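Design request, C-alpha cells follow.
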C-alpha cells in the first residue's frame, strides 16, 4: 500500500473543470514533479494535498486512510510552502523563521534559526527586516523552514521561484538529502531540475 495516494481527483473552479481523473501514489524516498501551464490547477492540487481544498471528486489517502478523517495525524506529517514566500515584511529573517516554525509546531531557538539561514546563504542578513531583502532572499527565508522541520512529506509550490543558480543548487541538495532519509516530496516547478530520488514521477496537468 502506498503511503500517499490520490485517486480519481477532479478540481472544479466556478463553471470550469481544471482537471479530472488524476491518480498518483508515493512511497518513502520518492518525488512527484507536477507540471502544467498557468491555470491548469497545479496550486489547487497541492492545496488538496494539504487539506486546504476539497476535490470535486476522488480522494487523497495517507497510509490507506482519507486525509479528511485523519486531521492532525496527517497535518503534523507535512510541510507546505506556497508559491508566495509568506514572510512578514516588518519581522527579521530570524523572527520569521522562528515564528513560522512555531506555528507548525516546531520550537527553535535563535541559534538554530541563525544556522539555518546561514546555510541558505543569508549570513549577515539574519537580523534585517525582510522588507529590505530581495525576492530571492525572501524565498530563501521561507525555504529555511525545510532545514528545521521534522516532517516526512514536503509539499512545495514553485520552490525555485526567484532563486539564482547557487540557491537552486542548495534546494536541490536539501531535497535530495530529505529523500535519502526516507522523506517524500511533491513539488511544482516551471524550471527543469534534476533531483536524485528513489523514484521520480511526473504528473502532467493539461
Amino acid at each position: 500500500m502506498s503511503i500517499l495516494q490520490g485517486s480519481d481527483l477532479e478540481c472544479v473552479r466556478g463553471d470550469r473543470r481544471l482537471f479530472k481523473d488524476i491518480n498518483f501514489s508515493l512511497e518513502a524516498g520518492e518525488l512527484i514533479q507536477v507540471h502544467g501551464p498557468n491555470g491548469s490547477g497545479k496550486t489547487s492540487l497541492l492545496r488538496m494535498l494539504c487539506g486546504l481544498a476539497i476535490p470535486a471528486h476522488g480522494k487523497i489517502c495517507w497510509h490507506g486512510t482519507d486525509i479528511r478523517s485523519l486531521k492532525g495525524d496527517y497535518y503534523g506529517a507535512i510541510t507546505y510552502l506556497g508559491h508566495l514566500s509568506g514572510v512578514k515584511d516588518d519581522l527579521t529573517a530570524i523572527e520569521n523563521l522562528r515564528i513560522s516554525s512555531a506555528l507548525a509546531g516546531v520550537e527553535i531557538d535563535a541559534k538554530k534559526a541563525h544556522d539555518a539561514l546561514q546555510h541558505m546563504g543569508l549570513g549577515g542578513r539574519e537580523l534585517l527586516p525582510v522588507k529590505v531583502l530581495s525576492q530571492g532572499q525572501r524565498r530563501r527565508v521561507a525555504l529555511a523552514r525545510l532545514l528545521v522541520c521534522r516532517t516526512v512529506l514536503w509539499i512545495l509550490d514553485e520552490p525555485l521561484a526567484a532563486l539564482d543558480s547557487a540557491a537552486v543548487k542548495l534546494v536541490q541538495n536539501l531535497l535530495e538529502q530529505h529523500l535519502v532519509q526516507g522523506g517524500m516530496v511533491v513539488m511544482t516547478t516551471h524550471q527543469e531540475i534534476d533531483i536524485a530520488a528513489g523514484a521520480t514521477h511526473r504528473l502532467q496537468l493539461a
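Comment from the thread starter after seeing the answer: thanks! The radius of gyration is 17 Å.
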